[in-house]
Each structure stands twice: as C-alpha cells, then as structure tokens.
From TrEMBL:
Keywords recorded for this protein, A-Z: Leucine-rich repeat, Repeat
Taxon lineage: Eukaryota, Viridiplantae, Streptophyta, Embryophyta, Marchantiophyta
Domain of life of the native organism: Eukaryota
InterPro entries with a match to the protein in the record: LRR_dom_sf, LRR_domain-containing, LRR_R13L4/SHOC2-like
Keyword Disulfide bond assigned: no
Full protein name: Disease resistance R13L4/SHOC-2-like LRR domain-containing protein
SUPFAM superfamilies according to UniProt: L domain-like
C-alpha cells in the first residue's frame, strides 16, 4: 500500500492543504520535492519544495514570509495575499525564474531593492494601502510587460519608466499620486 501511495504522490502537481496543520510534516517527505504548485494557506516551511513553479500564499494574519522562500529556484509565479504583511523578504531577489509577482497586502510599506534581481519578471501586480514609493530599481526589470499598481498613498512612480522597453500595460491607481511621468515610447507601442 505504501508503494502505491508513493507513486500517486509522485504525480501530484497542484496541491492545496488549506489550513491543515499536518501538512508541514507531510510536505517534508522526499516524494513531495516534485510538487509544481502549492497553495499555502497557513504558515508552513516551503524551502524544501525545490521544483515548485507556483506558490499562492493567503494568510490574513501573516506578518513575515520565510527567508527560505529564496530557495525556490524554479518558482515562476508568486501570489501573496495578507492584511498584515509589511515587507517582502530580501531573499525574493533570489527567485531567478520568477515571471509573475502579485502582492496584495494592505500593510505592505516596503518593497525590497533586491527586486532588481528578478530579470525574468514579466508581470508585477501590487496592491497596498500603505506603500508610498517603489524602489527605483524597478526600471531595470527589462522583461516587464505588465505593471499594475493600486496603492492608496503612492506619491510617485519611479522614473524613467520608459527604460522598460517591453512594457505593454501600465495601470496605476492612487489617491495621492503627485505627478505622472511623461513617457516617450518608441512608435508602434
């Protein structure tokens, strides 16, 4: 019976345990190193899921993301939702294959400068009630195609955003944005 279970577990791709507290022990087992998608609804160690491609974190009271997040070298999509998360870990810059980053955190006030290391990032979607500014390093995300910002108190955008040559969509919502930079994109865009 154990052999059958191991074979089934090896084929799992999406995985959602919800808030089940036993998931941490189960996920530490060797057969889960091939999981491609994991929906994290509670505080569980995730650093051992080396093949993870997509991570969804929905924890209303999550205050900090684990530093081990940076060990997920195959991660392509990260979606974080929390009411109380104030900052993302610097280790987020170690996610070299990350293509989509969605952060919806009401208390998010600080974005790490290590964001500049996300060379494959194509989509950045940020929602926050307290984020006032983006790191200037965002202008070095050369593959960024979609930038969606909904931040109540965002006062200014990093410039020069026109250095984002691949940018196809810019959607900014803020109640206090002082000025919108003038963009000079090449013709045909």
């Amino acid at each position: 019976m154990e052999g059958i279970l191991k074979n089934i577990l090896k084929k799992i791709r999406p995985l959602d345990f919800g808030a089940w507290v036993g998931s941490a022990k189960l996920l530490s087992q060797e057969q889960f190193t091939i999981v491609k998608e994991y929906d994290l609804n509670s505080k569980v160690s995730i650093g051992d899921l080396q093949k993870l491609k997509r991570l969804i974190v929905r924890c209303g009271d999550l205050v900090v993301l684990p530093v081990s997040l940076g060990k997920l070298k195959e991660l392509e999509e990260l979606n974080v939702t929390s009411d109380t998360l104030r900052e993302l870990p610097v280790s987020i810059g170690d996610l070299q294959k990350l293509k989509r980053l969605t952060v919806s955190c009401g208390d998010l006030a600080i974005f790490p400068v290590s964001l500049v290391n996300l060379k494959e990032l194509e989509e950045l979607n940020v929602t926050s009630d307290t984020l006032r500014e983006f790191p200037v390093s965002i202008v070095h995300l050369n593959k960024l195609k979609r930038l969606i910002i909904s931040c109540e108190v965002l006062a200014m955008l990093p410039v020069p955003l026109e250095s984002l040559k691949q940018l196809e969509e810019l959607d900014v919502t803020s109640h206090v944005l002082w000025e919108l930079p003038v963009f000079q994109f090449s013709s045909g865009r």
